[in-house]
Amino acid sequence: MTNNNSKATRTGGQVLVDALRINGVERAFCVPGESYLAVLDALHDAKDDIELIVCRQEGGAAYMAEAYGKLMGKPGICFVTRGPGATNASVGVHTAFQDSTPMILFIGQVARDQVEREAFQEIDYRRMFGQMAKWVVEVDDAARLPELLSQAFHRATNGRPGPVVVALPEDMLTDLVDVADAGPAQSIEPAASPAALEQLQSLIGQAQRPLVVLGGGGWSAEAVSDIREFIEKQNLPVAASFRCQDLFNNTLPNYAGDLGLAAGPELVEAVKNSDLLLVIGARLGEMTTGGYSLVNIPVPKQKLVHVHPGIEELGRVYQPTLAINAGMKTFAAQVAALPVVNPQGLADWTAQLNRGYRANFDCPASPGPVQMSEVIAWLNDRLPHDSIITCGAGNYTGWVHRGYQHRTFRTLLGPTNGSMGYGVPAAVAAKITAPERMVVAFAGDGCFLMNGQELATAANYDARLVVIVVNNGMYGTIRMHQERSYPGRVSGTELHNPDFAMLARSYGFHAETVVATEQFADAFERCVDSHKPALIEIQVDPEALTPRMTLSQIREKALASR
Fold it and tell me: What is the DSSP string of 302-358?
């Protein structure tokens, strides 16, 4: 890399890649395009510093960048071409925004002298991504790249983390400029004031039925350790917001479960009847609040302490008793140092919620020879505690979230925006980034085929993940809603699938097909012992639609209510 103070003339592409190196980028995900060839050329010279992961579709590449950002806590980097490349990648940007994940999407753009002509694949990215990203910028002057990329990294990581979109006119990338680099972006975290911490202690001391809810982005392993110290010291019950279960060890006696689609009835009632909700990092979105039904809008009946790094989120939907604008790392360290308020007075309440969480493990037997609850229980007992579980969206995730216990930080990569097709590319990114860890991707049959082409990426980079495809021959979640609203009138939800195991073998995977519960353990062990990327297709009975109700029971209940 050239010296900061004495710069040789460089192309815009070289200036950009130097900025990536300065900001500690070690990996980028892409689908190549002619609109950013100058960046690809500069990455050729930086290959010892930045590994370029070439993907098969821009949606998969964007998901991989988002999963990397989630896993590592620093911006996931994605490069795509203009027009169709950008529209394909938009699904990852939406995921990063709703999941509060740091990410930077670079898009090649038409040459500057072609703008506003509807040139080949031209799109105005400020309009396209305006409400989907934290910031959208088009760099028209290569000399401004250090300034604008510094801003991009700062915006992606500070406050509420999220995605930034940077459009790169192709002729700008070949311009020669003599410009100094900016330094690396700095992490800036607000902290709770002494007065706010004093009021928080008072509220905890007065509460008889408090509940902590953890979620959102901006966490680190140290912050998770600090928040655990605070929760255990104060003997508070703690729940995770939707798909944030890895922020607290699920096996500990303070854990009350997750406020997602698999929330237990005890936890749902606890939210309604709590006299103090201490929400740390979560936005209190639709999933976490049961469709905004568990907490009144705009003034909750519970006392609400809302802690969030993005000041725009405080008071956005719910008016808090105490609003604290603070970063997760800083706030967790602050509350870990607080003196004990009244831990014994909350012992019965905390134990009650933990019993409710454990009771939620029990599921009735499902129709058919495969019991997904037993499969998940076996994985829960067998997998190393630092294993990374990924999933997309679909009813199959109900078994995963209900039965698998996360013990350590960043062992769950799942989209809180309910995006299908996420699990496979997220697992590929996770295994490339952390090859020493077990990575298991869950996907439904519909979910898998939305990004199944990224098996080729896994094979290309020898990412030895295990993909579990739960095949019930339908878009299960939509079928569930369909049976509830229009019982017996099946339309648009049936699927006719390939042989997933045979498909995986064509990519060079080891593959297994499971049609009965007792076959799963040996199939999984053979996958691990193969020392290859692997896939298991589990064929489940279409009647086994949810962990607690069959397809027929859902339909019959809907018909009876008419």
Answer: SEEEEEES-GGGTTSSS--SEEEE--HHHHHHHHHTSPP--TGGGHHHHHHHHHHHH
pTM for the model stands at: 0.95
Do the beta carbons of residue 432 and residue 472 sit within 8 Å? Answer: no
CA dihedral over 363, 266, 236, 322, signed as positive or negative:
positive
Question: Could you tell me which residues come within 8 angstroms of residue 337 by beta carbon, excluding any fewer than 6 positions away?
Answer: none
Contact 363, 547 (CB under 8 A): yes
DSSP state of 27: E
Chain position carrying tokens 């953890």: 214
Distance CA(171)–CA(83), nearest Å, equals 17
Q: Over its length of 562 residues, how does the chain's per-residue pLDDT go in tens digits?
A: 444 444 589 999 999 999 999 999 999 999 999 999 999 999 999 999 999 999 999 999 999 999 999 999 999 999 999 999 999 999 999 999 999 999 999 999 988 888 878 877 778 999 999 999 999 999 999 999 999 999 999 999 999 999 999 999 999 999 999 999 999 999 999 999 999 999 999 999 999 999 999 999 999 999 999 999 999 999 999 999 999 999 999 999 999 999 988 788 999 999 999 999 999 999 999 989 999 999 999 999 999 999 999 999 999 999 999 999 999 999 999 999 999 998 678 999 999 999 999 998 888 999 999 999 999 999 999 999 999 999 999 999 999 999 999 999 999 999 999 899 999 999 999 999 999 999 999 999 999 999 999 999 999 999 999 999 999 999 889 999 899 999 999 999 999 999 999 999 999 999 999 999 999 999 999 999 999 999 999 999 999 989 988 999 999 999 998 8
